[in-house]
Specification:
The protein has 209 residues and is an all-alpha fold. 66% of the residues lie in helices and 0% in strands. This is TetR/AcrR family transcriptional regulator.
Length: 209
């Protein structure tokens, strides 16, 4: 079995909330800034997204918000679009720059199973889909795009179509399950060396010989 890639995982594509907040002192907050900030509000649950509360956290008035969005519903849609772009489109784009499908798969597994604060956003979006009909279509599209990309990687490694799909669904199911476990019971996965060893174990398990 091939060794896991030694290439370190790239930093998260999600901007830190304080970096977004700092932009209020320059040209002012753009629609993208508001959407990216809203993602961090979603980490506390979809119901936690409030225009007034978000403006207060950003240190600005609500007036700036209404230059870009009509209401909270528009902000939620913009935040979901940013989540899809950052957590799926951009990730795939970065992976495609790597030279081989095996290296792409190893890097993808390293990215998805390493601790990342944006994992709370994913869990909140999944949980919120049951209560908010605007979220479900986005979640379904993102999940399908990710599984399709995994199928493409496994096919490139020589697996037949049906087997590649089985591996892809297994990999994505493992990711979703571990994401929930990391938030609901973080001690289960350990920290430091123990967690790193487990991530390597998962990568080996999800990589065909």
């Amino acid at each position: 079995m091939s060794r896991a890639s030694s290439r370190p995982p790239e930093p998260s594509l999600f901007r830190a909330f304080e970096d977004i907040r700092a932009r209020r002192r320059g040209p002012g907050l753009s629609a993208e800034d508001w959407a990216d900030a809203a993602l961090w509000s979603l980490a506390d649950g979809v119901e936690a997204l409030s225009v007034e509360r978000l403006a207060r956290r950003l240190g600005v008035t609500k007036g700036g918000f209404y230059w870009h969005f009509k209401d909270r519903a528009e902000l939620l849609q913009a935040a979901l679009a940013r989540w899809e772009h950052l957590a799926t489109t951009e990730v795939i784009s970065r992976l495609e720059a790597l030279p081989s499908p095996r290296e792409r798969l190893h890097q993808l597994l390293a990215l998805t199973f390493e601790p990342d604060p944006h994992g709370k956003i994913e869990v909140a979006i999944v949980a919120g889909a049951a209560a908010d009909p605007r979220i479900q279509p986005v979640l379904a599209r993102v999940s399908q795009r990710r599984i399709d990309y995994l199928v493409k990687l496994y096919r490139a490694l020589g697996l037949p179509a049906r087997e590649a799909r089985n591996w892809a669904v297994q990999a994505y199911s493992t990711y979703v399950g571990l994401l929930h476990l990391a938030i609901s019971s973080p001690d289960t996965l350990g920290t430091g060396r123990a967690r790193a060893d487990y991530v390597k174990h998962i990568a080996r398990t999800l990589t065909p010989a």
